Amino acid sequence: MTLIVLRETMEENLSGESMRIALCVQVILLSAAMACSPAWAGQKAVGVVSQADRAHIGSTNALTGSNVYNCENLETEDQGEMRVQVRSSQVYLAASSMAQIEQDANEVQVFVNRGTVGFSSPAGGGVELTTPAGFIRAASGQAASGQVTITNGKEMLVSAIRGDLVLDNGGEFRTIAQGQTVKITFNDGLEPVCRVDEAGNQPRDPVVHHQIGFYIVAAAAVGGTSAIIWHKIAESDYKPQ
């Protein structure tokens, strides 16, 4: 708007060579403004922060209502947390966790980088947690909620809080029944890459099968931290704009 007013003023008071110089200045100012705009200025947000406490999007503090774009780093501090509304689903980061979200026309991939990351999705929600041991998603497209905790570089825990989950390890499928927590070990974990410049335009990388250990460590109702996360994911009254 400022540039439009500037141009109108110039047209009223200048002509000839002076006008050409003024227009060059206008072009330079516009180019500089575009160069300083955020890299995601032309992108559509993939989600909206519905709750944040000591949490960050990239290098900025996450606030309720903040937009989340493809492949931005989502991170929580010690004792922090963050929830993100993505389509009709929610993604949750517990304390000391890091994740990224990538969305295309068919599905939402959540890259679990560190800590505990959970999701709650209705039937057909199309949410997958991308982990070092494979992809975690709802069984048979049903409504489900679950979480992954990376405990160290060779081990993670997966909890099915509501509905059954499936681990896709390169075409080998393991079911985590509702209420179960399983320990999964791996020696050569996947290294998934969030494609910030290609999201939505390229098929995802194929799942490569690799050796894992799969151990049921709890088969009762999920409680403790998992129950808290489930409460926060499922019972929020937040309605994104």
What does this structure look like?
- This protein has 241 residues and is α+β, with helices and mostly antiparallel strands.
- The protein has 2 domains: 2-35; 47-234, Jelly Rolls (Sandwich), CATH 2.60.120.
- It has 3 helices and 15 strands.
- The protein has helices spanning 2-13, 16-35, 225-234, and strands at 47-57, 60-61, 67-68, 74-86, 89-93, 98-103, 108-121, 127-131, 134-138, 144-152, 155-162, 165-169, 172-176, 181-186, 212-218.
- The protein has a 15-stranded mixed beta sheet that branches.
- β12 and β13 form a beta hairpin.
- α1 runs antiparallel to α2 (16-35).
Q: How many structurally independent domains? A: 2
Instruction: Kindly state the percentage of residues in helix.
Output: 10-25%
CATH topological fold name of the largest domain: Jelly Rolls
Q: Tell me what portion of residues adopts beta-strand conformation.
A: 35-45%
Task: Write the element-wise H/E pattern from the N-terminal end onward.
Answer: HHEEEEEEEEEEEEEEEH
Question: What oligomeric state do these chains adopt?
Answer: single chain
Low-confidence stretches: 1-11, 23-40, 233-241
Q: What shape does the CA trace take?
A: globular
Named CATH architecture of the largest domain: Sandwich
User: What would you call the structural class?
Assistant: alpha+beta
Main sheet? 15 strands, mixed
CATH class of the largest domain: Mainly Beta
Radius of gyration: 23 Å
Q: Span between N and C termini? A: 26 Å
Count of DSSP-assigned helices: 3
